[in-house]
Amino acid sequence: MLPVFTICISLITLSIAIHAIVIGRILKWKNYLNSHFVSAAGMLLVSHLIHVSLFAMGYQFLSDAESKLIGNLDGSWIDFFYFSLSCYSSLGFGDIYPYGSLKILSGIEALLGLVMIAWSATILYTLIKSITVKD
Fold this sequence. Notes:
Shape: elongated
Oligomer: single chain
Helix content: over 70%
Number of strands: 2
Largest sheet: 2 strands, antiparallel
């Protein structure tokens, strides 16, 4: 159980750090990005995809006989990425589900995804508001 919590804490810390760096860049380049709103949205999307990829690697690393993903999958990395994406977005199709200690990681990823998506929405709202106030 200790490796799961260690990986969870590492992935949370890394995801928050990456997102904070991206948001810091967006806020630093705010005047430029006001006229290039799509660039800011793209930067945030790439940040989210990095988080999903990190968690997919975590699922793959922690998968063994006692902790694994079960369902409609063939064991390729894309399956881990797909499952991670559905957890991060809290979509949860149900065709793949976690077994064992991966349940903890998937629950934490869903919470982190909720916070990160809300954080991104706040930044985008702030940019839109600053654009409309200038006009």
